Amino acid sequence: MKTPTKPATLSGRCDPDRNLHLAPRKAFTLLETIIAIGLVSLLMAGIYSAMQIYYRLQVDSHDDIERVQIARVLLRQITRDIQSVVFEEQDSISEEESLDESEEATVVDLESSMTSYTNGLVGTETDLLLYINRPDRELNYVSSQELVSFSDRSSDLMIVRYFIAQSGMGGISSQIADQYSTGNSSDPVGLVRMAGDLYGLSTAIQEGDENGQISAAKLLAPEASAIRFQYFDGLTWQTEWDSNQLNSMPIAIEITLTLITANDQDDVASKPDDPYAAGPTTHRMVVAVPVAEPFVAEAGL
Question: N or C terminus: fewer CB in 10 A for the chain?
Answer without folding.
Answer: N
